[in-house]
Specification:
This is N-Dimethylarginine dimethylaminohydrolase. It comes from Paractinoplanes atraurantiacus. Keywords: Hydrolase. This protein is α/β, with parallel strands linked by helices. Helices cover 25% and strands 21% of the residues. It has one domain (3-273): L-arginine/glycine Amidinotransferase, Chain A. It has helices at 39-55, 97-109, 149-158, 196-205, 214-218, 238-246, 257-260; strands at 12-15, 59-62, 79-82, 85-88, 113-115, 127-130, 137-142, 162-166, 179-181, 187-189, 210-211, 225-226, 230-234, 250-254, 271-273.
Length: 275
Amino acid sequence: MNHSERQPRNRTYLMCPPEHFTVEYAINPWMDTTVPVDAALAVKQWSVLRDTLGDLGHTVHVLDAVPGLPDMVYAANGAFSVDGAVYGARFRFPERAAEADAHAAFYGAGGWRFAGPAHINEGEGDFAYLPAAYGGLVLAGYGFRTDPSAHAEAQEVLGRPVLSLRLVDPAFYHLDTALAALDDRTIAYYPGAFSEGSQRVLAQLFPDAVIADREDAEAFGLNLVSDGRHVILNTEAIAMGDRVRAAGYHPVHVDLSELKRGGGSVKCAVAELRP
């Protein structure tokens, strides 16, 4: 398939600037409290990502950063929306709990149909949506952060089938570190992040998926944002960029080296809003 056949679709995103970003605690294998964060560089890199999305024709809403919430830059974790319905987040770690309130307030002010969760889940960190696959399919990760009970709860809230996928490698603790939607029906993923049963399910449902290797995943190459044609990846993910190019997409590389210190990259910083 050549590039011209991949069609972008205008998206709406939510981001939060890393104005208070630091690595003050370690809640994933990538966080090192002994290495200082360059806050100014983090803001600069984040701004380039925001501008890149805008230059591609997408709408970016900005959520105000809250002092004392250094991980709030990872806006994808705050909720998950499908067709105007929003399933709110409930964080695993108390350090991040108040982020959910800021996101709930954003959706409440915007007139969304918001449902607060009873079960622990970390928003788009562990949920991905494919509107053209099987009539609208939610892929949902569990094993480290999100409680599998949240998957059934999300299905009730969103009215979309939710497929549970078990993550088994602590380096890939959120679904969005191991799997990404490239367009409305196509995914890329790293099989080794998933249990054997989940690997079989993914292979059955997505025979045309772009398969990443461990090196791609460790470079946060699957923590990407795609509009169906343009795939925004971090600058370390060169091999993953080559893979998506071979599949007919157009890779766009952005440097997010500072945000990686907190265990996140492009997708972690971007929540998709689906009115």
